[in-house]
Design a protein that fits this description.
By secondary structure, the protein is α/β, with parallel strands linked by helices. It has helices at 46-52, 79-92, 106-112; strands at residues 6-11, 16-22, 28-33, 55-60, 99-102.
Length: 113
């Protein structure tokens, strides 16, 4: 079975995250965190493959990239803020756990999770 890649937005009081998703809504989530200077779009080939394997594949645009919130102050891009963005994304999905995959700048975010 093939699944379409869907565009989504998750909003909290402090941040808005745009993300792509593919797969059944209630499947185990696998979240792909992009590197620099990429976007969620860079995971477009992996999302349908992992959805086909039974996961809900998700790829957010990280803070300051694509359609996610941007900020003017350098300190607003500290790792602690980006990790909080990812935790809020997980909360918005209604799940407590996920498999996290990070590439380049996305790797330290995933390690800090």
């Amino acid at each position: 079975m093939t699944f379409p890649i869907l565009e989504n937005v998750s909003k909290s009081a402090r941040h808005t995250s745009f993300y792509l998703s593919c797969g059944r809504t209630h499947a185990a989530p696998i979240i792909f965190v992009h590197g620099w200077p990429e976007l969620s779009y860079s995971w477009r080939h992996q999302l349908p493959v992992f959805a086909g394997l039974g996961f809900r594949a998700i790829a957010p645009d990280m803070r300051g990239y694509g359609r996610s919130s941007t900020y003017t102050r350098h300190e607003d891009y500290a790792l602690e803020h980006i990790v909080t963005d990812m935790i809020e994304l997980l909360d918005s999905l209604g799940v407590k756990k996920a498999i996290w995959v990070g590439h380049d700048w996305g790797s330290p975010v995933v390690w800090a999770m």
